[in-house]
Please model this.
Amino acid sequence: MLPFIEESNPSGLTDVPGFQAAAVACDIREQGRNDRLDLAVVRSTPPCRGAGVFTPHAFAAPPVSLCRETIAGATELRGFVVNSGNANACTGEQGVADARAMRDAAAVACGVDPSTFLICSTGRIGRPLPMPRILSGIDEAAQALTPEPEGGRGVARAILTSDSREKLITIRLPWEGTHVTIAGMAKGAGMIEPNMATMLAFIATDADLPAGAAQQSLHSAVADTFNAITVDGDQSTNDSVLLFANAASGVRVEPTSGKGGSIPIWDAFCTGLQHVCRQLADRIVSDGEKITKVVQVVVRGAGSRRDAETVARAIGNSLLVKTSWFGCDPNWGRVLDAAGYAGVPIDPKRTRMFYKRYPIEIDGSEIPVFILGEPTPEHLDAWRKVVRESRFTIVLDLGSGSESFVLLATDLTDGYVQFNKSE
Model:
């Protein structure tokens, strides 16, 4: 039994006591529209411990660099400002100045020190920010901050770009007569091939996390969730996952805590945080641009986790594999082909491949495809049934070790091409 309860109607970060939020429409896309939320401010009344995981992209956007700098030097954090519609990436020194001006303006409007505030941006690369509208919007949002559900839901809408829906989750961890809350929101539908996180994700909790524990727990949670998804194989310049912990619950959460035979609160918190990240990551993949299928690629029996991940990503990012998934074609030869050129030593005579209903944990037989160097064509009808489903699992057992990796991937559709051929 999981040590938490998931809310059925989450509101985002304002589900966590002490957090306030507001979103406004600034026409950051410069399309003459004032009906689309595109800027938001979030503030915690109590000071927070913070953590972040960021893109390693060579052209990382100024907001990413500023967040790294702030988190590295801050003893506390109080909130963040975020915009959609413009990534403020590849914008030169003006982009650096604009990111700092946004951060500073939001902090001052919230009555806190700029060194305690973070900034994120997402959207079109290479365009300068419309700063007069943004600065006006920051003041408007700061004046409208609220702990009510509409504040959190507004922020979740304001961060969207090509997404078709908001991505929200809140869980409660009961503990010794009280509870700890973890809430998260994310955006992402295209340029999803993380090497840290996803495009943008924000997580808040009222746990009392000591220095270092926030970063430790976030890095661990990201590894098998945000760092195990792909839609189109493209990393982003702005990928960021931020964690804010304001200690409002009074529950101390650290690796040494826990009592007797009960589940230690640290273990429960890390399990809950990983669940939040996994659910958000799944919702990002499921909302991939014009996709029709989500495919769980399980590579097991590898000599190392790195080998398993390398093979899984070769399969999940292969254009031939992804288009066959779109066509409901059980062309498993393309899967083995991708695995074979991944650069990992593979012995076909020790390799097994299966199709399976999604997810891998559910009951149901693995349908053999390729066993120890030999195909099993007698199962063709069963393969066809599986690949027609909107979600299914591919299992590739390399037979050379005990390590594994699970990747969530998608198909590639003509709709994706049409959607991305122009702005």
Remarks:
- DSSP finds eleven helices and 15 strands in the chain.
- The first strand starts at residue 5 and ends at 6.
- The chain has a mean pLDDT of 92.
